[in-house]
Amino acid sequence: MDMEFQNALSELCAADEHYSTELSALIHEGEFKVFSENTLDSVPYILQKCIKDQPSLRIDRGPISSFQNLVHVYTLLNRKQDQSEISSLDASDLAAKVVSRFYTQIWKYRDGIKEEFRALTIAGRESLRIVSRKCSKCGARLLDDAFARYKKLDQTKYVVRQLKMGCGSPGCNQKRILAIPFDESLKYCVPDINQLNRKPKETPGWEKHFVRTREDCLENEIPSTIETTCSKCHKEGEKNGPRITDENARWTIDKSPAYLLRKPKGCGKHKTAVFFPIDLSLFRTCTPQV
Predict the structure, then answer these.
(1) Does this model's pTM top 0.85?
(2) In terms of DSSP bridges, do strands 188-189 and 158-159 run parallel, antiparallel, or are they unpaired?
(3) How far is CA 200 from CA 156, 157, 227, in A?
(4) What angle do CA 183, 80, 12 make, to 5 degrees?
(5) Which residue did the predictor score with more confidence, 207 or 146?
(6) Is the dihedral of CA 231, 233, 237, 243 positive or negative?
(7) 200: part of which helix (H) or strand (E)?
């Protein structure tokens, strides 16, 4: 049993009484039986249970159920590992490395790496405690964040984590990516001290009287995501003008709701232009007057 794995087990035993007795037995034995076949059943039962019970080692809340799942979880945890080296590991060695990585990368930093970060965030509760995630670049599913944290000054925003060397999925070789929520309706921000210190913009007084809530839009099947383009470029006849996806579309409370136009500063040519829906046949539009 390598020292990294032994240290990880020792720390987990000290923190979790549920596994303390049985995991301690593995530590004192110094080694465990390794079977030649690569199946999840060849991993000691208590080690299997420890891995399966960790919400942080799941994708969309689904526990590891096969050797292939175990390999995939390990590649997401150890993004620098050569794939050929992973294939040479047997199931028990792989399980041991997953536990080690879980401890060093997730468990130790479940409240945040820096004290300043912890002071500016809060832990998610109930349905917001666990967040299913995906890669911001390639869109591949990532391990769930079972220790989700939210911006203290705006508790609707989940604080994403930055990952170096891509997300670990095949073909994702980006230098740095964000592990963003799979649920696109969940707002998020990056773990930047300046952003975490920034107070949210106040909602205009008129909005609560004239704009539908997100819940009302969902109930009435009104789209929350709209593809928009620069109105001035469109007027000038440019067919390939800049496009922006409004991922938080706002609608009036009229019986036939109108989409509220935005000025996202997304056009280099027309700095103050409004962006309107590309498919004009579907939406009425109006510009909010503050």
Answers:
(1) no
(2) parallel
(3) 10, 10, 25
(4) 70
(5) 146
(6) negative
(7) none
